[in-house]
Design goal:
- By secondary structure, the protein is of the alpha/beta class.
- The chain has a single domain, classed as TIM Barrel.
- 23% of the residues lie in helices and 16% in strands.
- It has an eight-stranded mixed beta barrel, surrounded by four helices.
- The longest helix is centred in the last third of the chain and has 19 residues, at 173-191.
- The radius of gyration is 17 Å and the shape is globular.
Amino acid sequence: MAVVRSSRFPRRGIILAAIIVAVTAAGAPAASGTAPRLDPDDPAGAWAGYSIGAPAQRSAPVPAGGVAGMDVSGHQGVVDWPRAWADGARFAYVKATEGTGFRNDHFAAQYEGAHAVGMVRGAYHFGLPDRSSGAQQANFFVDHGGGWSPGLLPGALDIEHNPYGEICYGLPPERMSAWIAEFSDTYFARTGRHPAIYTTTAWWNRCTGANPTFGARNPLWLARYAPAPGELPAGWDFQTIWQFSNHGVLPGDQNTFNGDHRQLASFVS
């Protein structure tokens, strides 16, 4: 995310200058549409970035010029939050829900743990557009931990390769775009904030038909495991958060907020 910007927040130039350890060509899902399949009975479900590739062989250093953060799900279980704070994490996204029937058993402990050490925190929802409507999933998310109030990161919609079937959930681009818009509009109606959208450039451009209409209102949480953010999904000219690796000094996935601490505080206000 080259710079943090929203209707509530002025744009400032921030350069991500550090070199990150590259992680093979699996930094984006294969163009053929192949992606790992998950066990539908996995008690921890999917997670942000499951489809991007295998863990990095070596820890990736945090890019310079931003604020270090992390995201976790039920796969991390009990998290050592004081250690994560000591290692530099200042914000965290925690998976709350998936579809309309899945809740992260560790959500409450993880969400409160992040808050207890002083991190800015937010919740994310793993969207399954072939299961139920965007409105139903947004309401399920808000009702089970995904709400927003000042001081929290806006709830995030994780929309990426289908963990359990066809890459675009069997939806053509116009229906996928409509589903995402319904989720976003419902979340806004419930909370007063538009959700962040977590996605990869490859998935977004393929499965929404490179829809450019979301960049004006939804913060981008970009997933790309590489030395630089690279090409962004259609409609965005910067990312607010960049998930740059799934292995590093912090538990879970490694992220950087595209701004300084003052800008992060403004973003969540």
